[in-house]
């Protein structure tokens, strides 16, 4: 029997695990393998399932240089090859002890995940797929001149540039990671061809301390940067109220020709590095809304943050299925359940908060949306 017609591509390679910041670092790339293994256990990957699979190529130096400065690229190369361990030199480029340490093969590993997002975008431009998901992508804190927040190269910016080079005049970037997508915003802050939208835990409380409503774009691109910071412990209902007040409006006003999504899983309530309280149902509802709003457009999808490995496995598996327009059984295949202890894709329990916290989060979200609308001149 022929397998179902495919409309989605999933990019994964075992070599993604070479982006190794250390066994005590919060970013553990075995989470990517867990997603791949669960998709295979469900039987939805090619050759038998409806989701095509590809191993990405590495981004070329020219592709990386479209986003990053030459001196920074050289510093990453030297850090990864062991040519230098000069802390003062590397720290100028955000490389060193802490968030983004040097490791062997750093340049090659960062080029590979970046190539995944470029290749996802190129697959969409071919017209064969409606969505392509680079599970290793989404490293949104990398800036043109420095690494930051676990991120070396900004693959998202490279994917956006690929759309622009193909002749797209308007590319919309939407980021639902718990942390503000500061690096991607910075790359396009004064570029009227790109709108960046980020819903995140407020920089008053969480790294990187940016992403406020008044950050609306540079002099040549006013109104192309939209930020909705949220109070810690914001739950599904308030988060979606803020989403619905901003994201459909962005699609309507900007009329994108292509979409790039950063779907960090750390907005989920079980994540150890953030404080938002989205459930799996609430988070996936946002993903489905984004895919519905993007209907008819090429959609490059990436992962991003997510530091509870079993939560990441569940959520990004459902993302891959949603890209293909299929719904998976909630019960996890026994071979994965026995290995991980995860029995269901969706949460078995949900968070609860005191009414006072709920009220504060709702008031905070409404005030941030009001300030954003005011900054954009919307009544």
Structural notes for this entry:
The protein has 379 residues and is of the alpha/beta class. The chain has twelve helices and eight strands. It has helices at 30-42, 61-65, 70-81, 87-91, 106-125, 155-165, 182-187, 236-254, 280-293, 309-323, 334-340, 355-376, and strands at 8-11, 51-54, 131-134, 171-175, 194-201, 225-230, 258-262, 299-302. Strands 2-1-3-8-7-4-5-6 form an eight-stranded parallel sheet, sandwiched between helices. Helix 5 (106-125) runs parallel beside helix 6 and helix 9 runs parallel beside helix 10 (309-323).
The number of helical runs is: 12
Distance between the termini: 56 Å
Low-confidence stretches: none
Structural class: alpha/beta
* Gyration radius from CA atoms, angstroms: 19 Å
**What series of H and E elements makes up the topology?**
EHEHHHHEHEHEEHEHEHHH
If strands are numbered along the chain, what order do they take across the biggest sheet? 2-1-3-8-7-4-5-6
Main sheet properties: 8 strands, parallel
Share in β-strands: 5-15%
Overall pLDDT: 97
Number of strands: 8
Assign a percent range to the helix content.
25-40%
Choose one word for the global shape: globular
């Amino acid at each position: 029997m022929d397998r179902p017609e495919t409309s989605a591509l999933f990019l994964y390679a075992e070599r993604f695990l070479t982006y190794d910041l250390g066994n005590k670092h919060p970013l553990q790339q075995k989470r990517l393998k867990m997603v791949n293994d669960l998709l295979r256990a469900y039987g939805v990957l090619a050759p038998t399932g409806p989701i095509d699979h590809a191993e990405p190529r590495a981004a070329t130096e020219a592709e990386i240089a479209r986003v990053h400065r030459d001196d920074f690229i050289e510093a990453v190369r030297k850090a990864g090859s062991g040519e230098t361990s000069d802390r003062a030199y590397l720290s100028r480029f955000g490389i060193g002890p802490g968030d983004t340490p040097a490791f062997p093969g750093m340049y090659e590993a960062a080029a590979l995940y970046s190539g995944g997002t470029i290749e996802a975008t190129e697959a969409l431009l071919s017209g064969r797929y409606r969505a392509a998901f680079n599970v290793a992508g989404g490293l949104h804190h990398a800036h043109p001149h420095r690494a930051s927040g676990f991120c070396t190269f900004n693959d998202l910016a490279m994917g956006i540039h690929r759309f622009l080079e193909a002749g797209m005049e308007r590319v919309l970037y939407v980021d639902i990671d718990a942390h503000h997508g500061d690096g991607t915003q910075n790359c396009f802050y004064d570029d009227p061809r790109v709108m960046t939208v980020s819903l995140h835990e407020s920089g008053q409380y969480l790294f990187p301390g940016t992403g406020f409503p008044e950050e609306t774009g540079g002099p040549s691109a006013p109104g192309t940067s939209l930020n909705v910071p949220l109070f810690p412990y914001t739950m599904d209902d308030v988060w979606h109220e803020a989403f619905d007040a901003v994201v459909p409006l962005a699609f309507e006003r900007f009329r994108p020709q292509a979409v790039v999504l950063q779907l960090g899983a750390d907005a989920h309530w079980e994540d150890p590095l953030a404080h938002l309280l989205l459930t799996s149902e609430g988070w996936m509802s946002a993903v489905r809304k984004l895919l519905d709003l993007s209907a008819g457009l090429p959609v490059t999808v990436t992962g991003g943050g997510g530091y509870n490995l079993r939560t990441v496995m569940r959520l990004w598996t459902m993302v891959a299925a949603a890209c293909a327009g299929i719904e998976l059984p909630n019960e996890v295949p026994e071979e994965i359940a026995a290995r991980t202890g995860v029995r269901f894709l969706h949460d078995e329990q949900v968070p609860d908060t005191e009414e006072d916290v709920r009220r504060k989060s709702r008031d905070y979200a409404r005030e941030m949306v009001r300030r954003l609308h005011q900054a954009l001149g919307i009544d």
